[in-house]
Each structure stands twice: as C-alpha cells, then as structure tokens.
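Quiz preparation item.
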C-alpha cells in the first residue's frame, strides 16, 4: 500500500511567504547597515579631518593665585586657534578658566602658560582646543 505525499509539488505554487520575508529583511538590513556606515564616516571625517588644532597638558604646578600649566599644542601650519584651560579647588569648585591663543607657522608649540585663579587650584584641565 502506498502513502500519500504531504509535500507540495515543486514549482507549482511559487516561493513561500517565508522566503519572500527573508529576502525583504536582508535588503532592509543591508540598506540600514550602509546608511549607518555612511553616517559614521561623515562624523568621523568632520571630527578628525576638520580639527586643525589639538592640545595636551604635560604637567602643572599649583600656587596660591595661579596655576602654571605646561601645554603642548599641535596644529596645521598657519592655523590659528585657542585652547581652553580650567582649574578647580579641592572641593571641586571652579577657581579659574581662560583661553590661550596659538597662531603662526609652527606645527608644534610647547609653552608654559599661567592660569590665574581666585583661590588655590588643585587641577589643570584642558577643556578643548578650537581652530578659528
């Protein structure tokens, strides 16, 4: 005695809905992945490529009314800009903040700057550097 087949004949009814859904999901996933990659590339370029000046605090000495900061700045030749430094007291209160300008053709500037404070500062923090 023969048994009845439960499978549909191949090619008779087209693709199943699961196969169509899988294909649609793959296409949507690929488009979203490409869009995400494009957005990350755009922001990465503007963050790294457009930043013409950067700085680093090498060290600092605290005093009663000022903090002397050893600052190293790297920039494109001829670019001008400024770096913002701040100092805080032991309790976290902001006691001094100032911008220091850097211009000229040098690409690396190593300078000691004096940040005046209203009370003894315990830190010297580089907030950021910005090109004009």
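Solution:
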């Amino acid at each position: 005695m023969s048994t009845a087949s439960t499978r549909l004949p191949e090619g008779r009814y087209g693709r199943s809905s699961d196969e169509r859904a899988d294909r649609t999901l793959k296409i949507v996933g690929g488009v979203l992945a490409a869009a995400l990659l494009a957005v990350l590339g755009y922001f990465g370029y503007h963050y790294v490529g457009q930043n013409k000046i950067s700085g680093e605090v090498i060290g600092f000495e605290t005093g009663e009314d000022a903090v002397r900061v050893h600052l190293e700045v790297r920039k494109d030749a001829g670019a001008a800009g400024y770096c913002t430094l701040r100092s805080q007291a032991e309790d976290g209160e902001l006691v001094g903040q100032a911008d220091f300008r850097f211009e000229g053709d040098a690409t690396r500037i190593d300078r000691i700057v004096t940040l005046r404070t209203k009370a003894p500062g315990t830190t010297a923090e580089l907030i950021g550097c910005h090109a004009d």
